[in-house]
Design brief:
It is globular, with a radius of gyration of 16 Å. The longest helix is centred in the C-terminal third of the chain and has 21 residues. Helices cover about 45% and strands about 15% of the residues. Helix 1 runs antiparallel to helix 3. Strands 3-2-1-4 form a four-stranded mixed beta sheet. A hairpin with a 4-residue loop joins strand 1 and strand 2. It is built from seven helices and four strands, in the order ααβββααααβα. It is an alpha+beta fold and about 170 residues long.
Length: about 170
């Protein structure tokens, strides 16, 4: 079995590492007037997390020379040089034979809720949220926007019509 707190801790370690590795690129996009929100989603069956940055409707980003906003971070790109990423991927891999429920669809729903809920908790926790809040504070246009509008966690399959950050915040 697994522990949800272990998953949250693994996410926190990965998020802090990724924030440090991509801080300049994050600042580049977040400081643009076109910034709308970040969207993170988990594809645990591929052992992956996707992190994209979106512009406001009718707006377009000036693209960074090295990193696109629509595929800002793909977790698997960092696996070789980040032990934190390898640990998170090991957790996902351990789920292959995990049966939380007898029904396969119900089992997948539980894994979707667990993976996205834990990610949202990590983003809203005492380790990661202050880092993101400081980043958002650099753009005066974002000052009065709620955290759950600036960063979202949604499942890529659309099983749940939910921003998991709203459920946690």
């Amino acid at each position: 079995m697994f522990d949800k707190n272990t998953l949250i801790e693994a996410y926190e370690n990965v998020l802090i590492t990724l924030l440090k590795k991509r801080i300049n690129e994050l600042q580049f996009y977040v400081n643009q007037s076109a910034y709308s929100h970040m969207l993170l989603s988990v594809e645990f069956w591929h052992y992956d997390v996707n992190w994209n940055i979106y512009s406001l409707p009718e707006s377009h980003f000036e693209q960074h020379k090295n990193v696109a906003s629509d595929e800002f971070i793909i977790l698997s790109d960092f696996e070789e040089d980040c032990p934190e990423v390898a640990k998170l991927r090991d957790i996902f891999e351990s789920w292959e034979e995990l049966e939380l429920a007898e029904d396969e669809d119900e089992n997948m729903d539980l894994l979707f809720k667990l993976s996205h809920g834990a990610l949202a908790e990590a983003l809203c926790g005492n380790e990661v949220k202050p880092l993101l809040s400081d980043l958002f504070a650099e753009n005066k246009a974002l000052k009065n926007r709620p955290f759950n509008e600036l960063i979202k966690v949604e499942d890529p399959d659309g099983r749940f019509d939910l921003n998991f950050v709203e459920a946690v915040a």
